[in-house]
Amino acid sequence: MKDVMVLAGAIDDVDQLTQKATGVLTNSVMLFMVIAAVVVTWAKTKSVVSAFVAALGGAALWFVVLNAAMFRDSVGEDITPSSGTAKSAGPGYAVVRVIDPTPGGQW
Questions:
Q1: Phi first, then psi: what are they for 28, rounded to 5°?
Q2: Taking a C-beta distance cutoff of 8 angstroms, is the pair 37, 57 a contact?
């Protein structure tokens, strides 16, 4: 029984280490990408406004990447079935539309 407890502890340690490594890699890669976008934008345009917009866009993308799970989970809550359809099949049913092939039998 003690071996199982040690193995469970080792698996938990590896899982925590993997989560930390993923976080460090995600943050460092995103930081590099934001800095690269700002530098490239500044080099091409020599405009402070363009570089600032690139930094804002990069920060927004970074926010989306870090909160991807929240956005994924909120999609199901935000999308509701439309009640304005001509004919509602009800839950558990799919509406299938058959499209006839073009004349001549070729697509």
A1: -70, -40
A2: yes
